[in-house]
Design brief:
It is extended and about 65 Å long. A two-stranded antiparallel sheet has the order 1-2. It has 173 residues and is mainly alpha-helical. It is built from 6 helices and 2 strands. The chain has 2 domains: 69 residues, Arc Repressor Mutant, subunit A; 94 residues.
């Protein structure tokens, strides 16, 4: 694909919350070319006045590196910066790895939620109502993601969300 098409597809895959700019795409493509993970080919276009397009293609080494990266289920796979991208490619990931990543993400968010809820209860009297509303919004967003992750984990395990053991239910405090 050429850069414009690649950016368009990635933005479609990742959704509106994570738009990829050309300023980050092209330097990343250049790094991948230097690492031998993709190749670039200049393709002439018609009419002659248009600039030639550069088409990128994944190499065998790039496919192996992608597979290696997608098999990593450690803490880096659960983080905010990488989880969305990993999730976008879950269909190419083994079920056990998907479960470890989903469970790790849920645990990380539950820890964050517990911390934020504790801070919220301590600081509610010290901050104005807009700051409290922003904190409340953050808590609700994390609670929603924890429920979503729990539903995904249940689906991966092949059981309906309503049949989850009580310990798997996210807190709604």
């Amino acid at each position: 694909m050429h850069g414009y098409e690649l950016r368009k597809r990635l933005n479609l895959m990742l959704g509106w919350g994570r738009l990829l700019s050309y300023g980050s795409l092209y330097p990343a493509l250049k790094r991948l070319v230097r690492a031998g993970l993709i190749t670039e080919t200049t393709v002439s276009t018609t009419p002659v006045t248009r600039r030639p397009r550069i088409v990128y293609e994944v190499t065998e080494d790039g496919k192996l590196e992608f597979k290696r990266m997608m098999s990593d289920s450690g803490p880096a796979a659960w983080e905010d910066d990488t989880f969305d991208i990993r999730f976008a490619f879950f269909s190419r990931t083994d079920m056990e790895i998907r479960l470890r990543v989903l469970e790790g993400r849920r645990t990380r968010l539950q820890e964050r939620l517990d911390r934020v809820q504790s801070d919220l209860s301590r600081t509610q009297k010290e901050v104005d109502r807009y700051a409290v509303e922003l904190q409340r919004h953050g808590v609700e967003s994390v609670e929603r993601e924890v429920r979503w992750l729990s539903d995904l984990i249940d689906a991966e395990r092949g059981r309906p969300a309503d049949d989850a053991p009580p310990g798997d239910q996210p807190s709604t405090a």
